[in-house]
Write a structure and sequence with these properties.
Structural class: mainly beta
Low-confidence stretches: none
Mean pLDDT: 80
Order of helices and strands: EEEEEEEEH
Helix content: under 10%
Radius of gyration: 24 Å
Shape: elongated
Number of domains: 2
Oligomer: single chain
Length: about 170
């Protein structure tokens, strides 16, 4: 959705937003994150001169790869975006995000970047995910392995009994 910044120079414009879009940024190359549904944006856009104030809720469904067990899992994402953008630099408001110069703004790009910045740093299929065995690579969520869990690094073998009760 393209917004013309020059349209609202005389008076403020408030628009209700209700649209869906597929992200223009391609995350498909990584195979770690995929969009399963289009991003749905519902909210308001207030345009004053060369400033945009967004109050939007984004919803979509995404597929992730778990960082512990490497299984794929699907998760619904609900992200609230409350941002102010401007094409003119101002020292008044430090929270305003500066837009690149021009008379148009692609709202889908701005919202996609907000959604991506809110993704979890570590994607886990569940909080109780046990991950993979470091020795044999077995998925510990599905099976137990017979690996020796008591292996101690030789450099720290002297510290093994240090905290045992006397």
């Amino acid at each position: 959705m393209i917004i013309e910044l020059s349209d609202a120079k005389a008076k403020p414009v408030v628009k209700d937003l209700n649209f869906s879009f597929w992200p223009a940024l391609s995350l498909e190359e990584s195979k770690e994150i995929q969009f399963l549904d289009p991003i749905k944006a519902v909210g308001t856009l207030k345009q004053t001169g060369r400033q945009l104030a967004l109050d939007v809720c984004l919803t979509t469904k995404m597929r992730f790869i778990c960082d512990r067990c490497l299984d794929s899992f699907d998760r619904s994402m609900d992200v609230k975006v409350q941002e102010t953008y401007s094409s003119e630099e101002s020292s008044d408001d430090e929270d305003t995000i500066l837009l690149s110069p021009g008379d148009t703004v692609d709202l889908a790009d701005l919202l996609t970047k907000d959604l991506i910045s809110s993704l979890p740093i570590q994607a886990l299929c569940s909080e109780s995910c046990q991950g993979l065995c470091q020795e044999c690579g077995a998925n510990l969520n599905r099976e137990a392995c017979d690996c020796d869990k008591e292996q101690v690094d030789e450099r720290f073998a002297a510290l093994k009994d240090y905290f045992k009760e006397v």
